[in-house]
Amino acid sequence: MGSRSRGAEGPWGAAGQAEAGLGGAGLGWAVQPSAVPGAVPGAVAASCPPVRSRPAAAVAVPSSMAPRKKLKGLVAATITPMTPDGKINLPVIRQYVDYLVNEQNVKNIFVNGTTGEGLSLSIQERKQLAEEWMCQGKDKLDHVIIHVGALNLPECQELARHAAAIGADGIAVIAPFFFKPTNKDELIAFMQKVASEAPEVPFYYYHIPPLTGVKIRVEELLDGIKAQIPTFQGVKFSDTDLLDLAQCIHKNETGEFEFLYGVDEQLLGALALGADGAVGSTYNYLGRQTNLMLQAFAKPDLALAQQYQFLTGEFLNFVIKLGFGVAQTKAVMTSVSGIPMGPPRLPLVAASSEFIIKAKAKLDSIVWPNGD
C-alpha cells in the first residue's frame, strides 16, 4: 500500500470496502446465530464444530519433524464475510474456499489481516473465523496463514496459541501501531514473545509501514533473527520500497526465508527481484489472471507478463481514483464471485452504488490476454 495504504494485502488500493447492494444485504442470507457453546454472540452458525468439540484427529497439530511445503505463488488475503447487520457470516466460507480453489486457482490464504478487517474483530470472532477457514480448507488449501497481530501482547499471544492448536500452517504479526517499537531490538523482542507461544509454527512478520507507521527496514531485522526467533520463516512485505525488498532477497542467499510481496499493482517488479510470491486482496477475484502472469514470467515471456500487470494496474488505477479500500474490495468480490461478502464494520462504510456500477463496468471492459 503506498502512502495511502495501497498494497496492504493488495492495493489499498486493492483491499476494498463493501456494499451489501452487490448482494450481501439482499440475497437472503438469514442464518440463525450459532447455538454452539462458545460461539460468537450474533454470528451466523459455523458449519464446523468448535475446536474443543472436534475429534482429536480433526485438529492437525504441526510437527517440527513433518516436511513443510514451501509457501510460494499467490496467497489470497481473505475477506471476512458479514451479514447485513455486521455479524460474521461463517457459512459463506465453504463456498468461498471452493471459489478460490476452483475458479481462481489460489490455494493459499492469509486470514484476519487488513483485508479481513482483523483489527476490527473481537478476539473470539478472529478465533472462530480461523477455525472455520481451517475446517473448510482441509484437503483443499495448501497453506492457511493466520494473522495474530493486535495492539497488545497478551492478545497476540492468545491468538498465536489458538492458531497453533488448530493446526495453522503459519502465523503472522503486524507491528503494534499505537505504542510503536522505535528500533529493531524492540520490534524483534515483541515478535519473539508472540512466536514463542507457537514454537512449532512458522512465523512471518507482516511489514506494512503505510498503515502502522513503523518504518524499521526489514533488511535490518534479518541479521541474526533466527537466533532470537527460531521459527522465523519470512515476511509479508506490503511496502513500495523495492530497495529494502531487494536487499532482503540479496541477503537470503540460502533461501531459508520466504518473501511475499503485498502491493498487487507492483508484483511483477517484485518477482524480478526474486520475491517468492505475493499476498493480496486482488487474488480473491483476479487470481486466475495473476497466476497466468506468474506463468508468463517463469517461461520467461516478459512481454506477456507485462500485459497482465498493466491490465491489473489499469483497473486498480481506475478504482483508486474513485476511492478504494476494504469496503470497496468486498463489493468487487461480491460482484465477481456472486458470494455475498456483506458490508464492512464501522468505522468503514459500505461502497456506494455509483462505485459498484463504475467498478463493475471497468472490470468487464478489460480484455485479458487469455481471452477473458
From TrEMBL:
Coiled coil: none annotated. It comes from Junco hyemalis. This is N-acetylneuraminate lyase. The lineage of its organism: Eukaryota, Metazoa, Chordata, Craniata, Vertebrata. Belongs to the DapA family. NanA subfamily. It is found in: Cytoplasm. Homotetramer. Pfam families: DHDPS. One of its GO terms (molecular function) is N-acetylneuraminate lyase activity. It comes from the Eukaryota. GO terms for cellular component: cytoplasm. Its EC number is 4.1.3.3.
